[in-house]
Amino acid sequence: MTKSERQELLDNGLLLPLMEEFYTIQGEGFHKGTAAYFIRIGGCDVGCHWCDVKESWLAELHPPTDVGKIVDNAEKHSKTIVVTGGEPLMWDMNPLTSQLKAKGLQTHIETSGAYELTGEWDWICLSPKKLKLPTQRAYEKAHELKVIVFNKDDFRFAEEQAAKVNKECILYLQPEWSNRDKMVPEIVDYVMRNPQWKVSLQTHKYLNIP
């Protein structure tokens, strides 16, 4: 395959830069505690300084992988498939989700929403970032809003984002892991004063699983 042919397949979502794939327990948000197969796609230019998967940022570090192969692997493990990154919406998600849905699998995505929403999703976890805000369609379609709280200004940002999502969207505040000791008490206090919000924790880290 030539470089240009490979790039065309990447552009069309038939190949994806696969960083890793693994079967584990969803640790965050509405579906925490649920067994799920995670597909982590490389490539992200949002650039959060506290990102705990910075090795995902450069797509070229991760092998372009046939979508059919990814789907075959996923089907062996779980009915619930979580696509994450990186920022998976940098790529066309239509081929991946159409094949996953054809197998009868549930499709979930974790995204900043900064790129056009492609793919067919049973659950959209929108985690907006200040450096590159979500698209309008991402706000409209999100099932849960998960705002990462690193400092007190993130509460202001969270309210700005909550005003943009649909009325059925579930609102979560999640402490950034490295600063959790400082921010968990702040989040608990905030949610008690603003009960439209819920607390999300990275329970997989407490369980010491991927």
Describe this structure in words.
It is a single chain. The chain has 210 residues and is of the alpha/beta class. The protein has one domain (3-206): Alpha-Beta Barrel (TIM Barrel), CATH 3.20.20.70. The chain is 29% helix and 24% strand. It has helices at residues 3-11, 67-75, 94-102, 136-141, 153-162, 180-193, 203-206, and strands spanning 15-25, 35-41, 64-66, 80-84, 106-111, 123-126, 144-149, 170-175, 197-199. It has a 9-stranded mixed beta sheet with strand order 3-1-2-4-5-6-7-8-9. The longest helix has 14 residues, at 180-193. It is globular.
Supply database-style keywords.
210 residues; alpha/beta; TIM Barrel; 29% helix; globular; magnesium ion binding; queuosine biosynthesis; iron
Mean pLDDT across every amino acid position: 96
Low-confidence stretches: none
Beta percentage is 15-25%
Number of strands: 9
Write the H/E string, N to C.
HEEEHEHEEHEHEHEH
Structural class from helices and strands? alpha/beta
Global shape? globular
CATH homologous superfamily grouping: Aldolase class I
Give the C-alpha Rg.
17 Å
Total helices: the number is 7
Distance between the termini: 34 Å
CATH topology: TIM Barrel
Helix coverage percent: 25-40%
Strand order of the largest sheet: 3-1-2-4-5-6-7-8-9
CATH class: Alpha Beta
Largest pleated sheet: 9 strands, mixed
In CATH terms, what is the architecture?
A: Alpha-Beta Barrel
